[in-house]
Amino acid sequence: MLAGEQGEVVERLFRLLVRLGDIYGAEEMIPVGSVQVAGVSYKSIGDPGLEFLEDFAAKGAKVKTLTYLNPAGMDMENWKEVGFPEDFAKPQIRIMEAFRKMGIVVTATCTPYLAGNLPRYREHIAWSESSAVSFSNSVIGARTNREGGPSALAAAICGVTPNYGLHLDENRKPNIIVKVDKELEFSSDYGALGYHVGKQVKNKIPYFTGIPSSANTDQLKALGAAMAASGAVALYHAEGLTPEAQLMDVSGLETINVGKEEMATTYETLNTGSIPDIAILGCPHASLREIGSLAGKLEGLKLKRPIWICTSRVMKEAADRMGFITIIENAGGRVVADTCMVVSPIEEMGFNITGVNSGKAANYLPGFCQQQVVFHDVDELIRRLSA
Ligand code: F3S
Q1: Both 182 and 262 in a single domain?
Q2: Would the CB of 109 count as within 6 Å of ligand 1?
Q3: How far is the CA of 145 from the centre of ligand 1 (A)?
Q4: pLDDT recorded at residue 341
Q5: How many domains are contained in the chain?
Q6: pLDDT at 372 over 90
Q7: For residue range 284-315, what is the model confidence (pLDDT) as tens digits?
Q8: CB of 340 closer than 6 angstroms to any ligand 1 atom
Q9: Residue with the nearest Cα to atom 4 of ligand 1?
Q10: What's the pLDDT score for residue 81?
């Protein structure tokens, strides 16, 4: 690859991986079982990114491993109906086409593990999106660093990544204990906990105790997403819940406690608005269980202001077959696929105050989308949308 025998693009990208490996002291390249590439939304990469991708695709670049995409800037099928501007849609469609030409699966989601890209325990992968990185490392026990857009694309096209960081056993050990001393009821509680802990531990590897054994994968994805957003947590362990937790020796580690007071302060901090113009759920992208649960809550209601739930195309199709989409639409909501509230231009669509149940979304919406935030559990958001 370095000698250019596989073409100019492979050579350039392999050089990038070698440089990265040199910086972090990797001794070898390792094959990756799958890749998830970020830098997909036109809002994030703009014209320079679009031109770069089209150039690679035109030169015949092809991926060597299963590769998925992070959310794009709009619903790729229903963008007109949902109200995405046309001057945004056109370049976004070209971006997706360039990825497709490279052999990348143009399902754009931050929950690839729910949409056909499920790594196994201890498998080496190269994923980009921080919540997906956290979920795959922590809940599945696969191994990935938090890749940037270019290094993930390089791993996809070369089929390998340098062996450093979270690929190695010694770097996966916890270095702080987080004792949770507050009942966690709603998905927003997991988001608030993650937001708070991320701020405290920054890029450490927390080991949680006190998270209920009933926590489901949706709640764990909300927790990891928020911690990766407010801090830079790419891996956490949770006693009795995540696969590597039982292998870890936590004796002598510093402990921080999270109780009622910390959780209440976090809710207060994250709420900068009161009545939302819109509520957007599905950060990270919603599972079928979450879409079904929303449909159950909305059945028979007529909201005064809209609610969206963001998800992958795959989940949207399953939700459609279950009749969930009709129920949600009848109440004035939408199931939006391929995109999310942070990477889509919602600030240009007339929304100023957004309701969310996600700690990650609450963290990013003020800066990325100039939104005031209403952060609550889904029932409370629905109440406020009906008021
Ligand atoms: Fe996914 Fe967007 Fe949230 S990428 S994790 S829905 S900010």
Answers
A1: yes
A2: no
A3: 18
A4: 83
A5: 3
A6: yes
A7: 999 999 999 999 999 999 999 999 999 999 99
A8: yes
A9: 110
A10: 92
